[in-house]
Specification:
The protein has about 180 residues and is α/β, with parallel strands linked by helices. It has a single domain, classed as Rossmann fold. The protein contains five helices and seven strands. The strands form two sheets. The protein has a five-stranded parallel sheet with strand order 3-2-1-4-5, sandwiched between helices. Strand 1, helix 1 and strand 2 form a beta-alpha-beta unit.
């Protein structure tokens, strides 16, 4: 029997509850979920016509390593008390370099469409020959930009938008004095 593999990509700046909702939904239909962290190299951010901010320093405060820690902490919260028999793998994922993607050819890319940016990602994956799965978008989008803003003004509202198990990791990785990332 072939293992069903899903791939879910994002900058995860930071990983939040709606990201976790996607993983939870995918965990019912897939045996393995690859979480691809885009913009893994913050020294080489690429501008894209479908997104005016994804390449800016302000939109990328957390290092790749910090995002891995935040996602791992979030997954711990998801897996506690749940009967989830899915394997999770977190990898760097450079959208601009499809040849570098370390994923099985049978992977299904799952995307929620909120804007032209996500639609362009869906097209990119399909153009590379991968099966795609467009997930229904919730009525209200939870924005990582809002979380970053809340962090930058030392407002605690962001804590309700991430898993409780990720709060300490985010606080550790966020530099409140400069409202920027902690140096890796």
């Amino acid at each position: 029997m072939t293992q069903r593999v899903a791939c879910f990509t994002g900058r995860f700046q930071p990983f939040h509850n709606q990201h976790l909702e996607v993983l939870s939904a995918l965990s019912h239909d897939f045996d393995r979920i690859i979480i691809g962290i885009t913009n893994p190299d913050l020294s080489n951010l690429q501008e894209h016509s479908a997104s005016s901010h994804r390449h800016t320093d302000d939109a990328n405060p957390f290092t790749y390593e910090a995002r891995v820690k935040i996602i791992q902490a979030s997954l711990t919260g998801l897996l506690q008390g749940e009967d989830i028999a899915v394997e999770f793998e977190i990898i760097p994922f450079d959208l601009a370099q499809p040849g570098s993607w370390s994923i099985p050819a049978e992977s299904v890319f799952a995307v929620r469409i909120f804007s032209p940016w996500e639609a362009s990602k869906l097209s990119l994956f399909a153009d590379q020959g991968f099966e795609t799965l467009e997930l229904p978008a919730p009525a209200a989008k939870l924005s990582a930009s809002d979380i970053r803003h809340s962090l930058s003004v030392a407002d605690s509202e962001w804590k309700s938008l991430v898993t409780p198990s990720a709060i300490n990791v985010i606080q550790t990785e966020w530099d409140y004095s400069n409202s920027t990332k902690v140096s890796a």
